[in-house]
Every structure is written in structure tokens, then in C-alpha cells.
């Protein structure tokens, strides 16, 4: 990207943020919750998160391992599908992210129903030794 274009984008972002703060206030209930999950030695850290229902969760997923992983969140039906047929790459679903070695991904997920949603790496041999975590969605 040319430097001029990059500066233009930064200025546009600043204008957008300042405009949002001035006009909307940016304090509405739908403001995203920022969260980060790191993968280290085939473990999710943290493995337990609690988030509110109906609020976008802006996640940064950081893979510190020199091997690929994946982050798939959902109910048990989702996990059973992936256990029996792991896709090599996930691109379209915010709840299914491929995490390249020493890379990161950003995704935003909104959980509409309270409950526990596990997130798991379904690459062969990763779930059984503990590459599992849980997002607890609070609220009524
Ligand atoms: Cu993995």
C-alpha cells in the first residue's frame, strides 16, 4: 500500500471515530466487547470467558505456536460435525477461524442465547489433549 493511501486511511479512521464519539456518543449497549484469546503450546488462554448476551464480541485470536490451529465455537452439533470432517480452511463463518502458525485472526461473534459454548481446535489430535475452552454467555 502506498504511504499516501495509508495516511489517507488513518485520517479517515480518525475522522470516523471522532464523528462517532461526537454524534452517537458510542456508549450504546451494542458497543462491542473486546477480547483476546491466545494459543500457546496447543492451549487456549484464557480457556474460560464470560460475555454478555446480544453484544458483539470483537475477538483477536493469536496463534503463538509454529503450527496451524483452528478456533471453532458453537454448540455440540457444530463440534460433532467438525470432529468427523475437519475442513482444511475456514473463511466465511465468524465462528470458525483457521489460525495460521505464528499468525492471528480477528472475528466478531454475537451470542443471542445464554449458555455455554465450547470452542475447540478440531485438527487431528488437538482436542483430546485439551485444546478446548468455553464461552459462557450471561443474561436472561
Ligand atoms: Cu490446534
Can you characterise this structure?
By secondary structure, the chain is of the alpha+beta class. It folds into two domains: 1-29; 32-138, Cupredoxins -  blue copper proteins (Immunoglobulin-like, Sandwich). The protein contains two helices and nine strands; from the N terminus they run αβββββαββββ. The chain has helices at residues 3-23, 76-84, and strands at residues 33-39, 44-45, 48-52, 56-63, 69-74, 96-99, 104-110, 115-120, 132-138. It has a five-stranded mixed sheet with strand order 3-9-8-5-6, covered by helices on one side. A hairpin with a 4-residue loop joins strand 1 (33-39) and strand 2. The longest helix has 21 residues, at 3-23. Copper (II) ion (CU) is lined by residues 42, 69, 121, 123, 126, 131.
In short:
Strands 3-9-8-5-6 form a five-stranded mixed sheet, with helices on one face. The chain has a four-stranded mixed sheet with strand order 2-1-4-7, with no helix packed on it. Helix content is 21%, strand content 37%.
